[in-house]
Automatic annotation (TrEMBL):
Transmembrane segments: none
Domain of life: Bacteria
One example GO MF annotation: helicase activity
Organism: Moorella thermoacetica Y72
Nucleotide-binding is among the record's keywords: yes
Protein name: Distinct helicase family with a unique C-terminal domain including a metal-binding cysteine cluster
Length: 54
């Protein structure tokens, strides 16, 4: 199964949330795979909340 293309708007929001949580440096240095499941969950939860509130 191939990698799906991510919407640039969602990626921008995801990076903004990561920056607010202090994780942006870690992502830039090591990539998204370096995040723990807890860190990824925090980003995902805040991202979903922002997308829902529009």
């Amino acid at each position: 199964m191939g990698k799906k293309k991510e919407d640039p708007e969602i990626l921008a929001i995801k990076l903004e949330v990561a920056a607010e949580l202090g994780l942006l440096d870690k992502i830039e240095q090591c990539g998204w795979g370096a995040l723990s499941s807890a860190e990824s969950g925090k980003i995902g939860g805040l991202l979903a909340r922002r997308l829902k509130s529009g």
